[in-house]
Amino acid sequence: MGKYLVISEVRDGELRNVSFENIAAARQIDENSEVVAAVLGDGDLESLGQELIQYGADRAVVVQHENLKNYTSDGYVQAAMAVIEQEDPDGIVMGHTSEGKDLSPRIASKLDSGLISDVTEIEGSGDDVKFIRPIYSGKAFEKKVITNGKTFITIRPNNIAPLEKDESRSGDVQKVEVDVQNLRTVIKEVIRKASEGVDLSEANIIVAGGRGVKSAEGFDPLYELADVLGGAVGASRGAADAGYCDYSLQIGQTGKVVTPDLYIAVGISGAIQHLAGMSNSKVIVAINKDPEANIFNVADYGIVGDLFDVVPALTEEIKALKG
Q1: 251 annotated ligand-binding residue
Q2: 254 annotated ligand binder
Q3: Per-domain residue ranges of the chain
Q4: What global pTM score does this model have?
Q5: What is the homologous superfamily of the domain 3-175 according to CATH?
Q6: Any idea of the CA torsion for 110, 10, 22, 80, to the nearest 10 degrees?
Q7: How far apart are CA 160 and CA 56, in angstroms?
Q8: Does 47 carry a binding-site annotation?
Q9: pLDDT tens digits for 240-296?
Q10: What InterPro entries does the annotation carry (predicted)?
Q11: Which of 45, 173, 194, 291 might form a disulfide with 248, Cβ 3.0–4.6 angstroms?
């Protein structure tokens, strides 16, 4: 029986949703393999290990150290490599997040292993498994297979559905002692500029604004709509460049790549750089007063009109439907 190691992500003491998606991905690669979930950080990690077991892991391994309270490349590489050396897995699965994109190539280098990044779909299983990932800013997709060595992949958040949580599941949570030291980077303070509430990269619903919102205050109706829908607010690079919002909200080729269930593009023209970050969303709704805007070419539904009339009306209608 094979073994797959899933390296989880923790933020503010809670597991990120991509951690559960990683477990589902490992199960899909080889349903007969043992899935071991690793949690790296500081604080009460054993309860997080049990939660990962409830989401489908067979057992969990935790590495707790004060130098892992905040993510640093040096610290997390040391902790991850200690777990990998102990478990000697046949494969490793991580999220294609800001942490995963930094950590995975460092681990692959130390293992002298290949790495398939930004996987959006897994086809087949066992010896016939293929990994599908976008290329050319999402204009095409390629299928990759691993012929030898470890299976090492990162998966794009919101693309592989997590398994259903089973609170009756329990398993062994083992603590691994690692002396995390010689850090070249020390995190003194973390200041979050991103919008409060739902994490943009994991949001199922995103309301994004472009230059058409005209000002920072123009984002207020978008925040209200996102709040009613239980979603997050994003932006185009044009809106960020204009100073309407922080760059942490930017979606596109040089920003975040998102794949929500619903993407509402408000006052966004549809430049190719923006489409690269959201064109794989399951349903796209465009609101723009220009009927010739390129965003309508990728939208499933389009509303031609002034966003300052359409968005508030849409918000009130949704509130009415929700009672």
Answers
A1: yes
A2: yes
A3: 3-175, 200-322
A4: 0.85
A5: HUPs (3.40.50.620)
A6: 20
A7: 14
A8: no
A9: 999 999 999 999 998 999 999 999 999 999 999 999 999 989 999 999 999 999 999
A10: DHS-like_NAD/FAD-binding_dom, ETF_a/b_N, ETF_a/FixB, ETF_alpha_N, ETF_asu_C, ETF_asu_C_CS, Rossmann-like_a/b/a_fold
A11: 194
